[in-house]
Specification:
six-stranded parallel sheet, 342 residues, NAD, binds (2S)-2-hydroxybutanedioic acid, binds nicotinamide-adenine-dinucleotide
Length: 342
C-alpha cells in the first residue's frame, strides 16, 4: 500500500497532503459487503489511499455507522454509504473499481463450495447491478467459492452484453501474501523481498504455489516443498479452525484485497509496471479461467504471464494436472448456475 499509515506529526501530514494534491488522477471505489468482517478493514485501508477520491460503501445493513466512523479519518476520499437494493444503483454510478466481499464465510468442517448456494445468488444480484450501472469498472470478486463466483459473474455480464474479460478478477492475492510470508519465515528472508507466484484457483489443491519460481531464487528440499505447499493450500482452513465458528480470514484478506485495489488504481493511473496474480479468463491452460501472474494496465489485464509455467518441477507439473478436474468442475458449476437462472 502506497499510503501506508497516517503520518503522526503535523509536518508529515502536510507532506502527505501535498503529495495527494499533486496527484494527477483519483478514482472512485465501491465496496459491496462493506459492513462485514472483510469489508470494514478493507474500507479503512482503501480510505488511506491517495489515489481514491470517493469511497462508496454498500451493504444490506449496518453500513451507515461504518461510513460515519470512517469519514472522520483525515484522508482525502469522501465516504458515502448505501443501504439495501434500492440504493445499489446510486452506489455504483461512476465507479472505477468495484470490490465484492459480500457473502457468507465458512465455519469449521465446511469447504468453500459449501457456500455456493447462498453466495452464488448474492454475487449474481450484485454483478447484475454492476452491469447496469458501471459496466466499464474493474470488478474484484472476493466472495467464495471464487472458482465458481468468477465464472458466474462472467456469464451475468455476458447476458447483459457488457462482459469485458480484461476487467473481471477473482482476488487470489491472499494466497500470494501467505506464500510470501511462509517462505520468508522458513528461509529467514526479509518479507518484503519474497515473491511467490500462485496459480490455478482458490480452494484446496487448486491453489498451487510455484515455489521453484520464487524471487529471489531459493532452493527447497522435497520435504520443504511438500510442507509449504500444503500449508499454503490449507491456510484458509487454518484460520477458519482458529476462529472456531466466528468466520474465516478477514484482516489478512482485507490487507490482500487492499493491495489488489491499490495495484489496480496504480494501473489505471498509468503505472506501466504493475503485476499481480489473479483468477481471470485465460488461455494458459485448457481451462477457461485460471489464476496466474498478470500485467495490469489502464484497460485491465494487459498480459497473462505464461513464463511462470515453463520449466515446472516434476512436483509442480503433477500438482497442476491434479488440480485441473476440480477447477474445471467448479467453473462449470458456476456457468451452469448462471445459465439456468437466465
Ligand atoms: P461477513 O459475514 O463478515 O461479511 C459479509 C458481508 O456481506 C455482511 O456485512 C453482509 O451483510 C454482506 N452481505 C450479505 N448479503 C449481501 C448482499 N446481497 N449485498 C451486499 N452485502 C451483502 O463475511 P466475511 O468474513 O467478510 O467474508 C465474505 C466473503 O469473502 C465470504 O464468502 C468468504 O468466504 C470470502 N473470502 C474470500 C477470500 C479470498 O481469498 N477470496 C478470503 C476470505 C474470505
Ligand atoms: C481464505 O482463503 O482464507 C478464504 O478463502 C476464506 C476461507 O474460507 O478459507
Amino acid at each position: 500500500l502506497r499510503a501506508s499509515f497516517a503520518p503522526r506529526a503535523q509536518k508529515q501530514t502536510q507532506k502527505f497532503e501535498n503529495r495527494v494534491q499533486a496527484q494527477a488522477s483519483t478514482f472512485k471505489v465501491a465496496v459491496l459487503g462493506a459492513a462485514g468482517g472483510i469489508g470494514q478493514p478493507l474500507a479503512l485501508l482503501i480510505k488511506m489511499s491517495p489515489l481514491v477520491s470517493a469511497l462508496h460503501l454498500y451493504d444490506i445493513a449496518n453500513v451507515k455507522g461504518v461510513a460515519a466512523d470512517l469519514s472522520h479519518c483525515n484522508t482525502p476520499s469522501q465516504v458515502l454509504d448505501f443501504t439495501g437494493q434500492a440504493e445499489l444503483a446510486n452506489c455504483l454510478k461512476g465507479v472505477d473499481v468495484v470490490v465484492i466481499p459480500a457473502g457468507v464465510p465458512r465455519k469449521p468442517g465446511m469447504t468453500r463450495d459449501d457456500l455456493f448456494n447462498i453466495n452464488a445468488n448474492i454475487v449474481r444480484t450484485l454483478v447484475e447491478a454492476v452491469a447496469d450501472n458501471c459496466p466499464d469498472a474493474f470488478i474484484h470478486i472476493i466472495s467464495n467459492p471464487v472458482n465458481s463466483t468468477v465464472p458466474i459473474a462472467a456469464e451475468i455480464l455476458k447476458q447483459k452484453g457488457v462482459y469485458n474479460p480484461k476487467k473481471l478478477f477473482g482476488v487470489t492475492t491472499l494466497d500470494v501474501v501467505r506464500a510470501n510470508t511462509f517462505v520468508a519465515e522458513k528461509k529467514n528472508l526479509r518479507l518484503i523481498d519474497v515473491d511467490v507466484p500462485v496459480i490455478g484457483g482458490h480452494a484446496g489443491i487448486t491453489i498451487l504455489p510455484l515455489l521453484s519460481k520464487t524471487r529471489p531464487s531459493v532452493s527447497f528440499t522435497n520435504e520443504e516443498v511438500e510442507q509449504l505447499t500444503v500449508r499454503i493450500q490449507n491456510a484458509g482452513t487454518e484460520v477458519v479452525e482458529a476462529k472456531a465458528g466466528a468466520g474465516s480470514a478477514t484482516l489478512s484478506m482485507a490487507y490482500a484485497a487492499a493491495r489488489f485495489v491499490e495495484s489496480s488504481l496504480r494501473a489505471l493511473d498509468g503505472d506501466a509496471d504493475v503485476y499481480e496474480c489473479s483468477f481471470v479468463q485465460s488461455e494458459l491452460t485448457e481451462l477457461p479461467f485460471f489464476a496466474s501472474r498478470i500485467k495490469l494496465g489502464k484497460n485491465g489485464v494487459e498480459a497473462i504471464i505464461s513464463t511462470d509455467l515453463h520449466g515446472l518441477t516434476e512436483y509442480e507439473a503433477k500438482a497442476l494436472e491434479a488440480l485441473k478436474p476440480e477447477l474445471k468442475a467448479s467453473i462449470e458449476k458456476g456457468v451452469a448456475f448462471a445459465q439456468k437462472k437466465a
